[in-house]
Amino acid sequence: METLLQAAWETAREGVVVHAEGRVVYLNPVAARLLEVERDKVLGRSLLLALRDHKLEALCRVGGEATLETRNRTLWVKAVPGVLLLWDKTDEQQRAEVLEESSRVLAHEFRTPVAGMLSLLEALQNGLSGPEAQEALQLLYQETQRLRRLVEDLPLNRRPSQNRTFALEELQGRLERFLAPQLAQKSAWIRWQIPHTVWANPDAVYQALLNLLDNAIKYGVGSEIVVESGQNNQGVWLEVRNRGQPLEDFERLFVAGQRGMHAANVRGTGLGLALVRRLAAGWGGTAYGRALEDGNAFGLTFPIGAVATPDHSTTQVPA
């Protein structure tokens, strides 16, 4: 019977540590892997020296179960007299964290078109003239289509890539119309210099650029916001530049939940730039930020394989 039990322990999915009088008398391969020890070197050693974790050693003494962080892993641990059981929940924990982050990102991604649609509906209710009403209805249709594409792009509904070759200038009118209320409120305008053509998902680029422009309007000072594209040996870059106090730590801003030092009085979730980087990765690009002499620039890159070179002069990414 003892041989059968040991054979079962050897092939078990959970880690098994058997101990007596405070010393390890057996541990299976899974336990050795989770504890990052060599089996032959810990047999006969004290629990504390073998487990190398005070919480695990204490649990062996008092019994019970717990979820612990050790060896860069999340372990569910159960202790009964003479036996310690270990179950690796690291992947499960990471999946839960990814799901939670995805939920926050999706809420952020859906909020922008929904807010715009509500503004358009309110304008229609307040009574727009014929041409203005038609323009509002067209914008509503476009945003409804974008919401549909967002739903279809959820992981459970993932379809083949919607990337195509398109001119960045295609996005200009749609973005200006959508941002018109915010621009008017701050007496701001956008200067466009985007003659390049890229290969990507237009809706993803639209969403990324919308987030960058939204940040520029919220946090920038001055009236002019510049959107400019250029090309170098790596591909095309696309930047949104605004005046303001130059920032120091840009990389931190691309982490979900992080916000800049000037954002305390501005409503937001700190997800916009994290989403921009995720969107850029979808077409093989990157998202970055850099300080200017009198402001800041946030940009996107499109790798050389995702660029359809137009008949325009080539410029280098600004230093």
TrEMBL record:
<dbReference type="InterPro" id="IPR003661">
    <property type="entry name" value="HisK_dim/P_dom"/>
</dbReference>
<keyword id="KW-0902">Two-component regulatory system</keyword>
<dbReference type="GO" id="GO:0030295">
    <property type="term" value="F:protein kinase activator activity"/>
</dbReference>
<dbReference type="GO" id="GO:0006355">
    <property type="term" value="P:regulation of DNA-templated transcription"/>
</dbReference>
<keyword id="KW-0808">Transferase</keyword>
<dbReference type="GO" id="GO:0016020">
    <property type="term" value="C:membrane"/>
</dbReference>
<dbReference type="Pfam" id="PF00989">
    <property type="entry name" value="PAS"/>
</dbReference>
<keyword id="KW-0812">Transmembrane</keyword>
<dbReference type="InterPro" id="IPR005467">
    <property type="entry name" value="His_kinase_dom"/>
</dbReference>
<dbReference type="InterPro" id="IPR035965">
    <property type="entry name" value="PAS-like_dom_sf"/>
</dbReference>
<keyword id="KW-0472">Membrane</keyword>
<dbReference type="GO" id="GO:0007234">
    <property type="term" value="P:osmosensory signaling via phosphorelay pathway"/>
</dbReference>
<keyword id="KW-1133">Transmembrane helix</keyword>
<feature type="domain" description="PAS">
    <location>
        <begin position="1"/>
        <end position="51"/>
    </location>
</feature>
<dbReference type="InterPro" id="IPR013767">
    <property type="entry name" value="PAS_fold"/>
</dbReference>
<dbReference type="InterPro" id="IPR003594">
    <property type="entry name" value="HATPase_dom"/>
</dbReference>
<dbReference type="Pfam" id="PF02518">
    <property type="entry name" value="HATPase_c"/>
</dbReference>
<protein>
    <recommendedName>
        <fullName>histidine kinase</fullName>
        <ecNumber>2.7.13.3</ecNumber>
    </recommendedName>
</protein>
<dbReference type="InterPro" id="IPR000014">
    <property type="entry name" value="PAS"/>
</dbReference>
<dbReference type="Pfam" id="PF00512">
    <property type="entry name" value="HisKA"/>
</dbReference>
<dbReference type="GO" id="GO:0000155">
    <property type="term" value="F:phosphorelay sensor kinase activity"/>
</dbReference>
<keyword id="KW-0418">Kinase</keyword>
<dbReference type="GO" id="GO:0005524">
    <property type="term" value="F:ATP binding"/>
</dbReference>
<keyword id="KW-0547">Nucleotide-binding</keyword>
<feature type="domain" description="Histidine kinase">
    <location>
        <begin position="105"/>
        <end position="306"/>
    </location>
</feature>
<dbReference type="InterPro" id="IPR050351">
    <property type="entry name" value="BphY/WalK/GraS-like"/>
</dbReference>
<dbReference type="InterPro" id="IPR036890">
    <property type="entry name" value="HATPase_C_sf"/>
</dbReference>
<dbReference type="GO" id="GO:0000156">
    <property type="term" value="F:phosphorelay response regulator activity"/>
</dbReference>
<dbReference type="InterPro" id="IPR036097">
    <property type="entry name" value="HisK_dim/P_sf"/>
</dbReference>
<keyword id="KW-0067">ATP-binding</keyword>
